[in-house]
Amino acid sequence: MPMKRFNIVLVEPEIPPNTGSIARLCGATNSVLHLVHPLGFSTQDKDLKRAGLDYWQHVEIVHWAHLDELLEAVDENALKFFTTKTTRDYSEAIYRPGDFLVFGKETKGLSAEVRHNYSDLCYTLPMENRRIRSLNLAMTAGIVLYEALRQQKQLSD
Fold first, then answer.
1. Residues forming beta bridges with residue 89, ordered by sequence position
2. Which structural domain range is residue 129 located in?
3. pTM recorded for the entire structure
């Protein structure tokens, strides 16, 4: 039986290079990239393609018309949401292959409704400097995904 892969979900991403970098991250880790529409750019965008370089053919990408469509299709136990508007540290989460790691749009993050409905499944990356609002989306996705992969390696050792 094939091993389940991690899933990175970008909800209405706005910045092509972030999505391109995350696509490359997904390709490198054999994770699935889920793009929730509407996107703030065309998938033909040159910056998006440049950030993903020539790796696009190695990335499984799933498109969703809207977030509710994805949420109805996925087991709630496999969801983890990432936001600056919670205090639960991302390293406290227990990550399992098949999990969906959900990130909001760059300028607004996840909606208040999503954060309220899934408050027990929300995590954040702590930042020491309170003057910094958030980390870059691609960096955040990379940190979280590699923590999930680290936990899996630790379990298999």
1. 124
2. 7-156
3. 0.92
